[in-house]
Every structure is written in structure tokens, then in C-alpha cells.
UniProtKB/TrEMBL annotation:
Record carries keyword RNA-binding: no
Membrane-traversing stretches: none
Keywords: Glycosidase, Hydrolase, Lyase, Manganese, Metal-binding
Species of origin: Periplaneta americana (American cockroach)
PANTHER family: CARBOHYDRATE KINASE PFKB DOMAIN-CONTAINING PROTEIN (PTHR42909:SF1), ZGC:136858 (PTHR42909)
Coiled-coil segments on the chain, per record: none
Domain of life: Eukaryota
Name of the protein described by the UniProt record: Pseudouridine-5'-phosphate glycosidase
Keyword Membrane applies: no
Length: 368
């Protein structure tokens, strides 16, 4: 009897361990990783995650689709991928980038062009990592509305089989689960003006604090409270770094918000080495790499910034309060300017800085 019991328990333990292992390697029962992304991750090749709230809630159809396609193309052709650690890079990778292993070794710290885009979204209650072109086109033109999906929204959207556009927070969660280390976006959520009383603080900031990931963004729009956002990022342990010659923290439409990042890096290699420390030291917290608006767009950017300031004044005069403020301002600014084309240009620019450190990407996931 005694032996039999032990036998059963041992079998159970083995079965449990196997199940755990399987679920790890199958990622999760709610995620489908596209074959492109899956193969790239398995071969330690650079992958850049992209969010989908910008598709579902950021722009109308068909501009949203055009921008999403364009950004994916930029990732495929123009991302600067940096090799920080050669030792795990395999021969397939050398073959892929068209050079032999010895030459590849020489190139450590130098940029390679191109990576695999992984647009992350929820379709019919399943999390998709990497969308095939037809699926992306379908998703962007959705007749069934998608829910803006941050961390708190996942259980509902998944259980009801709904569509979701993942926010920065939602995208970070998924990217981290499948082992993607770099994520490029436009603007990050932040602490809203008056956030000290309304408690309206984007969960993007918390998510950056609890995942080892590098988010490349053009900072925070000035409709938010940038100073408090930077304070809050410090509280969350996020390493904020401006890309460029100075520490000026950008505010999406302008290259200088009047506030400073704690640090700056001047080259892709510096950025890649910094990002790599997250994994070497197992920090379990993220890096925000703030890339200022490209110079050629800066003029238009400062005009939009003026429109924002005007709209903020008007909102105050009219007594508009609380959660009404942001929609009021965004609407007003969109009417006054052509903010959409600029957003697309900024987003594309950020993608180019999807630095990639290839070290310690251990996860292997199933192909859809
Ligand atoms: N900032 C922008 N445009 C956006 C967003 C932020 O300038 O579209 C989106 C991003 O997806 C971001 C989300 O993650 O809004 C933040 O929403 P909330 O403040 O509700 O957390
Ligand atoms: Mn909010």
C-alpha cells in the first residue's frame, strides 16, 4: 500500500512537472506567436515589439493600416541591431546576415540593419504576437470595435473572446512573456495633470517598472504632467535615458520638455550595452529610451505644442475638468493641426532605434 501511494505521488509529481514545462514551452494557452517571430526568437535574431492601441484607437482607417504597415517595413529594413554578446550567436545568424562567423565577431558593437517586427494585438480573445499581412489588414479595418487593452483589461477581453488593441503596458506584458526585449512606440502614457488628486496615472509606468524590457519612445505628450511622470518613473525604478548629445527629455512634439533625463547615451552601442545590463543583472525592471523628434519635423512639432498650450488654456477657462480634459485637448489640437502625419513620422523614427542586445534570450516558443 505504502509503495503504491509513493508510486502514485511520484507519478503525479512527474506529470505536474511535465505540464509545467510544456506550458512554459508552449508559452501560454492564450498566445499565438507567428512563425516569423517564433523562428527569429529561437535563432536569437532581433525582434522589435510594436503596440496596437495606435491602430485601434490612435488613428482612423485606413491611415492606421498604412502607418502600421510602414512601421513594420521600417523594422524589417532599418532597425539598428547591435550585437552585444557574440557567444550565443549561431552560424545561422551569420549566414542570415550574409557573412561568416569570423567577420561577424569583428562586427560586435556595430549596427546591423533589419529586424523582425512583432505587432502585438488581441484577436477573438487570443493574444497574437506578430500579425500576418492579411490579419493586420483585417484587424486595422475592424468593424467590431476593439477594446483598449492594458493590464487590467486582459482577463475580460480574453474571456469574452474580444478584440483588443494593446497599450504600451499591455504590449510590454506580452513581449516580456515571449522573450522580446525591445519595444518601439510613439508616446508613452504618464501622470495626468492633476494626477495627485485624480490618481490618473497610466499603468504603462508600473509595467515599465516590473519587466526587463527596453521601450523606445519620444517621451510623453505635454498634455500630461511630465515632471511628475519622471518622478514616478524613478519610484518605479525605470532607467530613463535620452538618446542624443544631451539629457533633454523630449515631449513627443518637441525635443526638449524643459526637464532632464537622468542620463543620456550617444550611440546605438552605448544604448545596447546599457539595455543588456538589465538581463545580466536580472533587474526585472525596464529602460525608457527617449528619442527626440527628428530635426526635420521639429518646426511642425513646435506649432502643435503651441496648439496644445492654447487648448489647455481654453479648457481651464471653460472649466473642463477630470477625464474630459484629455479628449477635449486632443480634439482641439487635431482640428488645429495635422498631428497624424507627424505622429507617424515620429513613430517611424523611433523604430530605427530598436537597439538589440542578443544576450540571454533563452525562451523558445511554439510556432502557430
Ligand atoms: N500617448 C499618446 N498616444 C497614445 C497613447 C499614449 O500620445 O495613443 C496610448 C498608448 O497605447 C499608451 C496608452 O500606452 O495610450 C496609455 O493609456 P492610459 O493613459 O489610459 O494608460
Ligand atoms: Mn488613465
Amino acid at each position: 500500500m505504502q509503495i503504491k501511494m509513493t508510486h502514485i505521488l511520484r507519478n503525479r509529481a512527474a506529470w505536474y512537472l511535465l505540464k509545467r514545462k510544456m506550458s512554459r514551452y508552449n508559452c501560454s494557452s492564450c498566445i499565438d506567436v507567428s512563425s516569423d517571430v517564433s523562428i527569429a526568437l529561437r535563432n536569437h535574431r532581433p525582434v522589435v515589439a510594436l503596440e496596437s492601441t495606435i491602430i485601434t484607437h490612435g488613428m482612423p482607417y485606413p491611415q492606421n493600416l498604412e502607418v502600421a504597415q510602414q512601421v513594420e517595413e521600417t523594422v524589417r529594413k532599418e532597425v539598428n541591431s547591435i550585437l552585444v554578446d557574440i557567444w550565443i550567436v549561431n552560424k545561422d545568424y551569420a549566414y542570415d546576415v550574409g557573412m561568416n562567423f569570423a567577420i561577424l565577431k569583428e562586427k560586435i558593437g556595430k549596427a546591423f540593419k533589419g529586424a523582425v517586427p512583432a505587432t502585438i494585438a488581441i484577436i477573438g480573445g487570443r493574444i497574437k504576437v506578430g500579425l500576418d499581412p492579411e490579419i493586420l489588414a483585417d484587424f486595422a479595418s475592424l468593424n467590431v470595435p476593439a477594446i483598449k487593452t492594458s493590464r487590467r483589461d486582459f482577463p475580460y477581453v480574453l474571456s469574452k473572446g474580444l478584440n483588443g488593441g494593446t497599450t504600451v503596458a499591455g504590449t510590454i506584458m506580452v513581449a516580456n512573456t515571449v522573450g522580446i526585449k525591445v519595444f518601439a512606440t510613439g508616446g508613452l502614457g504618464g501622470v495626468h495633470r492633476g494626477g495627485e488628486t485624480t490618481m490618473d496615472i497610466s499603468t504603462d509606468l508600473m509595467e515599465l517598472g516590473r519587466n526587463s524590457i527596453a521601450v523606445v519612445s519620444s517621451g510623453i505628450k505635454s498634455i500630461l504632467d511630465i515632471e511628475k511622470t519622471l518622478e514616478y518613473l524613478e519610484t518605479q525604478g525605470v532607467c530613463v535615458v535620452t538618446y542624443g548629445k544631451n539629457k533633454n527629455f523630449p515631449s513627443f512634439y518637441t525635443s526638449n520638455s524643459g526637464l532632464e533625463s537622468p542620463y543620456n547615451v550617444e550611440t546605438p552601442t552605448e544604448a545596447a550595452i546599457l539595455i543588456n545590463k538589465l538581463f545580466e543583472f536580472r533587474m526585472n525592471s525596464g529602460v525608457l529610451l527617449a528619442v527626440p523628434i527628428p530635426e526635420e519635423d521639429a518646426m511642425e512639432g513646435s506649432e502643435i505644442e503651441e496648439a496644445i498650450n492654447e487648448a489647455l488654456k481654453e479648457a481651464k477657462n471653460r472649466g473642463i475638468k477630470g477625464k474630459e480634459v484629455t479628449p477635449f485637448i486632443l480634439n482641439k489640437v487635431m482640428n488645429l493641426t495635422d498631428g497624424k502625419s507627424l505622429t507617424s513620422s515620429i513613430l517611424n523614427n523611433n523604430v530605427k532605434y530598436g537597439f538589440c542586445s542578443l544576450k540571454s534570450r533563452k525562451n523558445v516558443f511554439h510556432v502557430e
